[in-house]
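Researcher: Let's walk through a ligand-bound prediction step by step. First, I give you the protein sequence. Second, the SMILES string for flavin-adenine dinucleotide. Third, you return the three-dimensional complex as structure tokens. Ready?
Model: Ready.
Researcher: Here are steps one and two:
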Amino acid sequence: MEFRLTEEQRALIAPVRRLAQTAFRERARRWMDGTFPWENLRDLARLGVLGMSVPEEYGGLGLPVFETALILEEIAKVCYPTAMAVLGEAGVQTRVIARYAPESIRARILPAVCAGECILAICMTEPHAGTDVASYRTNAVRRGDRWVVNGTKTLISRAAEAGMFVVFTRIEGRPGREGIGCVLIERGTPGLEVTGTFHTMGGENLHEVQFRDCAVPEENLVIREDGFRRLLSAFNTQRCLNPAISLGLAEGAFDEALRYVRERTVFGHPIADFQGVRWKLADMFKDIEAARGLLYRACATANPFPDPFLAATAKVFCNEMAIRVTSEAVQLHGGFGFTDEYPVSRLYRGARYGSLGGGASETLRDLIGKRLVGPDGPGPDGILGLGCF
Ligand SMILES: Cc1cc2nc3c(=O)[nH]c(=O)nc-3n(C[C@H](O)[C@H](O)[C@H](O)COP(=O)(O)OP(=O)(O)OC[C@H]3O[C@@H](n4cnc5c(N)ncnc54)[C@H](O)[C@@H]3O)c2cc1C
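Model: Step three, the predicted complex:
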């Protein structure tokens, strides 16, 4: 086993770290009112890292999941809204286009994603159903040589900026999970309207999007059935990228707390001199490192996609760890931690997202528990026969 990042991995993240710790840190407060961090995305495009999930033939880096997670971690250390904007580009939606869209769409959209010029929104959640995907109502029906989509999606990230909407929809009203496919709808298509905005505690805006008789060409229906099963590998990859943001947020908050306890003096001492404070820091540190171990294992054993059980375990732990650690970082700042003056309050608010999106903790605990008691559970050859121990 090797616990060090390779030279190549270090070289990949070094410029991202420099950019994040300078320009992104300086600008971090700007995006808390829902303003989209275009400036940061353009900087990342200049570094060439925006096309992390885009195959090389379309100008991307085609990075493995581990390297993608490392880059997101660096960004999240200072700026949650930027990390979330980049997660969109590294996420399922880009993989849908790279894998399933026809060449005419890939050749047009993917280079624009790498350049930071085309934002992709993924539309799954509906007002009455998030986790319960079998209950989605959005429907696509065939009319002549077009597919016509009707439905409402909600809590959609980047909808105000997106050039392309990757929409999960029922096909011809077929029921259940298996009846769901995926259609690409471009901004400007008649009937597509962003109808509502929710400002979030993390800073970014989410939106409601309506599709009313949105007609798209035949080739835009990129998955015709069983879309969730076909995309399982992409969802499992996402389950390693979302916790990479949680890990980064916790590390960022820990660094801020460490700096603060050395500087802040009470009763004639820096608060770092108090044992109670040092114990808090020790607990935060061990929490972060345990999470890193789980996440990096899930990423480093991906071949090329992560094992669903390892990804789920890492995600639940990292998401919940980030809430604990960022909360303690606020606590260590005293009353100032609750103000906007210090970054910890932003990092804390961002940390609350992880366990809600990309598979909520409750659903993932279900998945983990089923595997533990099911036929693929622990056997005499070690933990789950995953070959890790
Ligand atoms: C910041 C942010 C960004 C988002 N971006 C997007 C986006 O870009 N695109 C998109 O489509 N969606 C997006 N979402 C929505 C997100 O995917 C959903 O919120 C999520 O899937 C949960 O669905 P829900 O909110 O409808 O909760 P529900 O499904 O109503 O669940 C409510 C609660 O019940 C729990 N629960 C559900 N089923 C079970 C069960 N069987 N056993 C035990 N507990 C259960 C859930 O875990 C949760 O705690 C975003 C959400 C946030 C917060």
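Researcher: And what stands out?
Model: Residues 53 and 90 are 5 Å apart (CA to CA). The beta strands are 120-123, 139-143, 146-157, 164-171, 180-186, 192-199, 205-217, 221-223, 265-266, 269-270.
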